[in-house]
Q: What sequence folds into this?
């Protein structure tokens, strides 16, 4: 008859005494984390932000350059709202025609909302006669026409100066000045219950 083999139970296993208290291990971990944090803070004081950003982009496989502090992200152009034009300029002249009352009234009505800006674009017809008489440049004459119309609007107090933008047309488009309004956002928002502003009318 075979004898039964007795297996040791949980009570038979010897207890192993801990070499150090549990709270001491936790305290050591916390101290190590604090030392690592202070090392990180000290190292980040002399960190090159652009080099770090470049390394992160390369690490994630992003190609190209991202805007930096020296190259800020350009603001988006205002959303176009309405368009007006003033023609009748003589060849080689930036003097506005006599009929400027209609465009002044249109600009004043179109920019009543403080969130609307006005872009004034001067243009030439591209011919050899329609150039600045002093410099012989068509772009200079286009810029002079835009400035002349802006002066008319400022003298008439139709549009504040900080909401005007003057540009020259990239391509010949006639002896005229184009005025375009754009919604730039921000500014004062009408409180609830106020009637909306009427849409501006383009002068004929």
A:
């Amino acid at each position: 008859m075979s004898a039964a083999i007795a297996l040791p139970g949980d009570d038979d296993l010897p207890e192993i005494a801990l070499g150090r208290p549990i709270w001491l291990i936790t305290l050591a971990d916390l101290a190590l984390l604090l030392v690592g944090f202070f090392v990180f803070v000290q190292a980040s004081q002399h960190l090159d932000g652009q080099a770090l950003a470049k390394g992160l982009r390369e690490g994630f496989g992003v190609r190209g350059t991202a805007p930096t502090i020296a190259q800020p992200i350009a603001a988006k152009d205002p959303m176009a709202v309405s368009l007006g034009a003033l023609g009748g300029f003589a060849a080689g002249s930036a003097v506005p025609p006599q009929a400027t009352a209609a465009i002044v009234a249109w600009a004043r009505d179109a920019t009543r909302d403080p969130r609307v800006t006005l872009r004034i674009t001067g243009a030439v017809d591209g011919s050899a006669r329609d150039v600045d008489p002093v410099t012989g440049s068509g772009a200079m004459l286009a810029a002079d026409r835009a400035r002349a119309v802006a002066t008319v609007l400022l003298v008439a107090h139709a549009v504040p100066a900080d909401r005007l933008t003057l540009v020259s047309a990239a391509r010949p488009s006639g002896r005229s000045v184009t005025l375009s309004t754009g919604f730039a956002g921000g500014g004062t928002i009408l409180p609830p219950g106020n009637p909306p502003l009427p849409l501006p009318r383009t002068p004929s």
